[in-house]
Amino acid sequence: MRVRLVVTFVLVALLSAVTATALAYRDARTAVLQRTQNTAVDDLRERVAAVAAGFDLPPDQRSLSRFAAEVSEGLGARIVVARHQDLTAVSDAYADTEGRITAELRAAVRAGDGTRFQRVEWRGEPYLVVGTPVTYADGDRRTSGLEVFAITDLRAERDDTEALLDSVREGIVPVVAVAALLALLAAGTVLRPVRKLGRATRELAAGDLGSRVAVRGHDELADLARTFNETAGALQSSDAELRAQEAKARRFVADVSHELRTPLAAMAMVATVLEEDADQLPPDAARAARTVGAETARLSRLVEDLMEISRFDAGAARLNASETDLADTVRASLALRGWTDRVTLDLPEGVRAVVDRRRVDVIVANLVGNALRHGAPPVTVTLAVVRAGGGDVPGVGEGGERVVLEVADRGPGLPPEARERVFDRFYKADEARTRTTATATATATGPAATATGPAAPDGGSAPDGGPGPGGGPGPGAGLDGGQGSGLGMAIALENARLHGGTIEVEAQRPGGGAAFTLVLPLRRTDGEGEE
Length: 531
Prior knowledge:
- The protein is of the alpha+beta class.
- The protein is built from twelve helices and twelve strands.
- Strand 3 and strand 4 (125-135) form a beta hairpin.
- Residues 390-398, 431-483 and 524-531 have low confidence and may be disordered.
């Protein structure tokens, strides 16, 4: 905008200066030529009248030459040409006059219509030629046949007008310079508030809701600044209100989850006792006991997941990281849940990274359990180390080595809408996967239903609520869909991000099925601490 303003000012100033110069040159040239022309006409008339009074007609060559010389004496440097019929006399015998007196001017003078003049160029130089017929003084103004022409050199007048033009042209440079300076000052006056407003807008976009601009004056820019401040203030108030409501909501979820733990623990104990004696109960009572046990376990997992996700929301989650063999961690996680025989493993030895073992277990449990529950065999788990710029693995970029853990299945894959929302909280995409998952009630009523145990991944509650490697249930081990809490994939992604990594999903592979890829930095030197 500064450049446009300066260019506009300079163009306007330049156009104005050129226009003024052209008009001044035209007026000055006209005035100079008009003055010279009038002087030449008047002088010729007066001089011819004075000399012709004593001139006898018809003249001979000598008297005509003398007449031309006498007329020229009173006209200064002008060349005088006298003509009478076939005789011609020139005051300057060496002057060439044929090219300077045109046929049109001769014809006009011969017609006796009074004094005539014409500006001509001869050999590149300007001249003024004035012609007049000599008339008798007997009252009827008859022409005598004597014609007189005076040739005036206009080079002095041309030089004067060109000098004026040069002077005006030289004045354009300082005019343009002053215009540019004024444009810079004007641009600074206009753009300074605009720059401040732009800076405040960028700060506001970056999250500084306290950004404001000073309001000066009462012009349009001041109104714009005032409107910006009012908008920023309203946005800050709304943000503060939303943050307060969000904090209340997080506290409410955390408090409710915490308060539910004690009665759920008691309910779980009672459900365990009922399930242990279920075989001795009547069929209906046994079904009810197993159903209560399964749903109580599911509710317990939901409470644990809610507490975990609330810690992520509050920014209170921390890594308890140590150097870990990732292959051993994956094997332990699968073995704990009885999934080792159902998964094909490609886990190279010696892949070690600084991670939180419990949180990696949660991620593996969710990804593998999701593939077993909703995909189709074979389910493969592949561990690899990818260096910077190595291939097109999602999440791998410049700046170091990455650990890539891929969990793939041969099921129907995920539709596009499920891919976009698979990590959303409480999102379930059972309808998008063709494999049917039995509910807790259906499992409990089947003839081969079992109570609980880590080896029952498709029935009961063990696959979703198995204990973590550090003892106790692993938050987020419940899977999205089926008997899961609906928070498992969201918690898995949050755990990956806590490690500085991510989870990417390939909804439909060329050979069929979906693939989830966990990408983590191979080493971490920051972010370690107690949860």
